[in-house]
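Structure first, sequence second, as always.
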């Protein structure tokens, strides 16, 4: 494998800029005096980032994941972090096992592109593009 010198320089420069912005954030954060609304906004950043990461998975995959996210959010109101994670994992496992049931199919129709059957390795490789590319277009019973 050969690496073009221009590509190597670009990668090293991007890595340097990324590292510099992270280190600068540590030095600048110590000198900032936050009060009032600005402090409240900065305190809300971790929750906003977490929601931005979790919401697409919770609402774009299937009913099991959406309902498990709701159960986990309710558990997070009362339980410590480790217990909340355990409840969330258990909720996904139970709901994924229960939702293929005909009773649940009648109550919660399948979302477009979400199949309620176990995917076999051949299904994943069926796309000409490669592994995983053909999942959304496959069986949507």
């Amino acid at each position: 494998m050969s690496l073009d010198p221009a590509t190597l320089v670009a990668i090293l420069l991007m890595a340097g800029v990324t590292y510099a912005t992270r280190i600068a954030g540590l030095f600048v954060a110590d000198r900032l005096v936050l009060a009032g609304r600005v402090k409240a906004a900065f305190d809300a950043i971790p929750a906003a980032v977490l929601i931005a990461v979790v919401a697409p998975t919770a609402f774009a995959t299937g009913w099991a994941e959406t309902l498990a996210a709701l159960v986990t959010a309710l558990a997070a109101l009362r339980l410590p972090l480790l217990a909340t994670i355990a409840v969330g994992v258990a909720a996904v496992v139970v709901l994924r096992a229960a939702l293929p049931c005909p009773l649940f199919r009648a109550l919660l129709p399948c979302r477009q592109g979400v199949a309620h059957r176990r995917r076999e390795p051949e299904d994943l490789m069926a796309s000409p593009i490669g592994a995983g590319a053909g999942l959304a277009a496959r069986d949507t019973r």
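Margin note: The chain has a mean pLDDT of 75.
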